[in-house]
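Chapter summary example.
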Amino acid sequence: MKKLTIATRVSDLAMWQAYHIQERVQKAFPEIEVVLNKIVSNGDKVLDKPLALIGGKGHFTKELEDAMLAGEADMAVHSLKDVPTYIPEGLELAAITQRQDQSDLFLSHTYASLDDLPQGAVVGTTSLRRRMQLLQKRPDLKVKDLRGNVNTRLRKLAEGQYDAIILAYIGLARLDLIKDIPYTHKLSLDMMIPPMGQAALGIEIVQNNEKLKEIAAFLNDEDTYLVTQIERDFIATIGAGCSAPVACNAVVDDDDVVFRVMLGYPNGENVMQERVVVKKDATQNLGKDVAQMMIDKGALELLKDAEKIAFKDEMPQRL
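The structure predicted for these 319 residues follows.
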């Protein structure tokens, strides 16, 4: 293999991620020319509707996968949280890079922390998962949808359209955008459970290419692959899409794995939550087992009802 083509979205964060992987591969495999195929995904085009109303996170990956299947790219770099649990035939999610800080970040120009927000304060987020967890703890808040790229979201905060917004810490840190916000506060994993795959990159490749597998193996982090597979198994088993509020996070803690999950209504009601600790060498079916445990307690019926009410207030004017 003399040339490797990496498919990437064109957002600032996606480009940072693609350049990061390009640099790592070029250093480790200097005989290979690594180039980028920059693609505008549907999720980047439609910025005036919540993801749940345009078909979900697959809209950030489909065009990249189509490019690989058409022979226009050999590899795609994704934010793993955007990668559906179904991978198209002919492709393979071959590696997960080492996970970075998974925290969500509170940002405001006026208030120092979530606890300092006054009653009825307006908080912006793109995520039903965050909406559920915020309103479970602070049902007095008004949570409004927030779309656009990172800079657009920060501009809306600066303009006073929101009292605070919540974004993933890692994207802001990679783009060096935190320093310009007067008040920021990391939310603990117990306070705000992340989504499947947050703060890790998924490396998707064309199947049946041994050199691509070798490159993917170089990029892979075993612990991250282990815990994110637990998360993906949970989501696949419970059948949760982006129109249902679901939080799901596994972390390695010495010889243990701590697995936190939560699901419920977007308004913070009817929440189901589990926190399971198992030995690292006993995690093979952890995601599936915890999903089944929640299914046995009525999770599927709860998610069905949650899907009916997700964005019901926003849908008439957005569609």
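To summarize the output: The two ends are 47 Å apart (CA to CA).
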